[in-house]
């Protein structure tokens, strides 16, 4: 049976106040004592009384998130992977989630209700859009928050963690150009999301440097599911002047694109090159494709864990973290990219 705070203090020979302060990260408790307390917590299975803690500290020890739900909105395994990272870090500190479903057109109001409820200490934002109205709204509410991604336009002085999507797709496109590819297709995420806009910008920038333009007929935007990747690639291959290379915004989209390429009887890496963005989804590893995929790699789970660390650190007053973080994706070259046909 798990012990209570009084019993834990007796086991350690410390006062209940010292144990409580050690668990809550107060700086006056030295590192050795804190480690003793944490070790005893692991050994005894102690769990703090959240109701008592909330009365004492005014903190709910919860992170809030709003999930848009409506007919026509597909579940997203990418968001699930991000939440797994957030959850892994939260459980280490015995923090909870407060998940509020919301109609897409009621999202701002849902955030306002969540902030006013007192049931969360901080929130995070995802699926950023240009001039995203949620940022100035949360700044005005004065609730701590961290953004996963960045808006385009609007205020810039807000906390975020993002992948440098422009640079990632610039690097990927530059690799294809160096291999002699001039007709390059893009299967992208939804056109209203900031990460998709930046990825397209990276492709365009690289092409422009080579004196080329992006053919809008070779750009498709969709939710990131394999069926959409298949349809987009099939459409590109039916053109009289099909692309010799394709960039996919996810390994999930690439799964569908590869299926269309195989059904067309083309060889990946020789007839057509493929590069995908790899969010490090555990069930879809690019090295396990029939032809291992060249990717731009950045872990969604690691991003979720980092945002949880920043939010929790801010809540309990532990750690000093940068306000804004921009992670660079790693370009990993595998067998799915090769010289353009005829080169």
UniProtKB/TrEMBL annotation:
- Which Gene Ontology terms cover its molecular function? DNA-binding transcription factor activity; transcription cis-regulatory region binding
Q: Name one matching Pfam family.
A: Peripla_BP_3
Give the matching CDD domains: HTH_LacI (cd01392), PBP1_AglR-like (cd20010)
| Protein name per its UniProtKB record | HTH-type transcriptional regulator AglR
* Taxonomic classification: Bacteria, Pseudomonadati, Pseudomonadota, Alphaproteobacteria, Hyphomicrobiales
